[in-house]
Amino acid sequence: MPEFLPLKDFPVPERLTVDMVRRLRSDGVEREVADARQPGLILRVGRKSATFRYQWSVGSFGKQRKNRLVLGDAGELALDDARDLARRAADLVTQGLIPDESWVRSERMPIGDTAVAALDVATGRWTFAEARTAFLAHVKAKRKAGTLRDYTDYLERPELFKFEHRPVDQITEEDLSTVCAVIHATGREGTAEGMKRKLSSMWTFLQRQHNREKSGVRKRVQLDVPERTPGKRRPRRFPLPSEIRSVLQKARAGECGIASAPLVLLFLTGQRREAVAAVSTDDVRDGVWHIPPLHRKTADMREDTRVHTLPWPEELEMPPWGEWVFKAKRKRAGKGAKPHVAGSTLTHALKAETWSPHDVRRTLTTVLRHKGYKQDRIALILDHNEGGKSVIDAHYDAYEDLPEKTEMLTAWWDVLEGRDLIDEERVFKTHRMPPKKPRFRAKE
User: Fold this and answer.
1) Mean pLDDT of the 125-146 span
2) Which parts of the sequence belong to the Integrase DNA-binding domain (predicted)?
3) Is 265 found in the same domain as 198?
4) How many helices (H) and strands (E) does the chain have?
5) What is the DSSP letter of 434?
6) How close are the terminal C-alpha atoms of the chain, in Å?
7) What is the overall mean pLDDT for the chain?
8) Which structural domain, as residue segments, surrounds residue 183?
9) What phi and psi values does residue 412 have, to the nearest 5 degrees?
10) CB of 328 within 8 A of CB of 258?
């Protein structure tokens, strides 16, 4: 659906030129420029991206609002093509119709792309759009709702519009690598790497034997992405146990709002935020937290049906009624949304910190390795793929490793609570980023 926002003043129109678009994209200064030649066409420039959009007003006088529709990335969509798309969108609006993303995809395929049009023949094989639909249905059945949203966002990006009606067996590794390179060139280097992972995963699905007849894809793809700019990758963060302890005390006092109790569980067990947020009252029995495969990352994809068990902290009591331990204050938006607290709520509660819920897992790992535990045993707590290397582990009962997990978590709790003081500066010296040096030395 098009972006629907409260009405604000339109940007002052300027006559856009190819050189102006190139200059604005390279400057990276956030601004909007309306095209004086084609009414409704807007170039929106952000710090990392620039897109052409079509904007129009709807509603009666005094209650007008504006619609915005993304036409494409300014680095991939030519200015003349953007004007042509905006003109055709304006024709639809005049007829009382509302153009949307699917209309943009269908309209953009033929624009200046004779090579793709020549390849678009009736082969009986999946087009990119059909293959994407099949792949996203597979993701929906096997992965979490958040994963589905992530894959959908990537695979419906404007940079892929030109493949929409093209048979997937005619799309080459070079074609897909070029898409990643175009995104990388706009400064969205992390997005380019994410696109590589999503496309690689989709092609792995397409080349599976039961999909080959429809897709025509016979092998996985090897995609290239330009290297990141040195120093641009965000370093991993390792909060000190004392820093986590400070927030833990606030959470116990209820100072973190609805996220207070979930944060206590997350800090004490080191589990992923989605598993913490979605814990059910049926999952906690006899002081043991049973995490089903549904709430375990990629467990279903690995056909792992085992239940991940951990000791349940005694200080967290079960609610007297209801299905969920951490109920949301109001019903969450979105189809299929559950009435428990959202995982993102935990991240927002730590907004004032320099670390996220997932960073707690790195600190827990560092502390336990300092205590002498091996990485493959710590993986039993973190629920990583590294667990279960031996024949015995491959067939272990859900409770067999519970005593060892309890021992390791007890060691973590002693450090977290301050009962076992460690030299944080020495233990985390190789992980923590050094403080920034002042640009100018003070005069003596």
Assistant:
1) 90
2) 31-99
3) no
4) 18, 9
5) P
6) 62
7) 82
8) 119-215
9) -65, -40
10) yes
What is the number of domains present in the chain? 3
Q: Which two tokens stand for residue 439?
A: 């640009």
Close Cβ partners of 115 (under 8 Å, ≥ 6 residues apart): none
Q: Which amino acid is it at 367?
A: V
Residue 180 to residue 199: CA distance in whole angstroms? 10
Phi, psi at 361, each rounded to 5°: -65, -35
Condensed to tens digits (0 to 9), the pLDDT of residues 186-216 reads 888 889 999 999 999 999 999 998 999 999 9
Tokens at residue 101, please? 């993303």
Residues forming beta bridges with residue 73, ordered by sequence position: 51
pLDDT in tens, 107-119: 876 544 444 444 4
* Domain annotation covers residue 442: no
Encode pLDDT of 309-364 as tens digits: 999 999 998 887 778 999 887 766 555 567 889 888 999 999 889 899 999 999 99
Q: Give just the sign of the alpha carbon dihedral 300, 409, 359, 370.
A: negative
Residue with tokens 């759009």: 129
**Whether residue 284 is found in the same domain as residue 417:** yes
Backbone phi and psi for residue 311, each to the nearest 5 degrees, phi listed first: -70, 135
Q: Helix H segments across 186-240?
A: 189-206, 209-215
Residues 320, 261: Cα–Cα separation, whole Å: 15
Distance CA 396, CA 308 (A): 11
What is the rounded CA–CA span in Å between residue 40 and residue 92? 13
Q: Which amino acid is at 336?
A: G
Transcribe 312-364 into DSSP letters.
PPTTSPPPSSSSBSSB-SSPPSSTT--SB--HHHHHHHTTTSSS-TTHHHHHH
pTM for the whole structure: 0.58
Question: What is the CA angle 286-144-384, rounded to 5?
Answer: 60
Round to whole Å and give the CA distance between 51 and 46: 9
Residues in contact with 254: Cβ distance below 8 Å, sequence separation at least 6, in sequence order: 260
On whether residue 226 sits in a domain, the answer given is no
pLDDT at 305: 58
Lowest mean per-residue pLDDT among 84-88, 173-177, 258-262, 428-432: 428-432
Q: What is the pLDDT of residue 178?
A: 92
